[in-house]
Amino acid sequence: MADWRMKAKYYEACNCAYGCPCNFNGFPTHGNCTGIVAFAVEDGDRDGVDLSGLKVAAAVDWPKAIHDGNGKMAVFIDSASDDQREAIIPILMGQDGGMPWEILATTISEIHGPFFETIEIEDNGTDSRLRVGEKIVVEMETFKNPVTGDPHEVHTVMPTGFIFTDGLVGGTTTARADADGVSFDCSGNNAYYATVEWSNANQPAEATLTPAG
Length: 213
What we know:
There is one protein chain. By secondary structure, the chain is mostly beta strands. Helices cover 7% and strands 45% of the residues.
């Protein structure tokens, strides 16, 4: 098992109501969970391999709550080198331990990929956009004050959160996936944006938040 760490921008869109009750009591709004997650590494390494610039996107479909398992996932990797590809896969599969992948990997029973394709990310807080061709498309949307029209900033703060500890909540205008049999459309529902720090050290590092512009 290799040591690894990374600081990354994190993007999430799912079929739950705003805020996503999975974060609070573990059970999704509609009884099942479909979601798209992505991250772009700003700084990190695994066993001496620099992970900076690497991007990952995944579409996941769980038939019930996430902790009930049996999810199927299509995962995409956009990397600068073969070394980065080889380094990120054992992290994502939970083989190296460390949050959040150590837990998430146990909920997946069917994996499609990894596919090595271009991942386009337009980083703009809760107005960020994500695309893997036509296979994954996400357009996030910041809440607006209904009176003034100004951006309405909302946080979910979880000091012991294993994915993020402080996330900006938003919505989506588009959030759909059609990737090797993992297909769904969860547009118009919950989204999260955060800056995260993950590792397989004993304690996960605190996440720091970059507010929406």
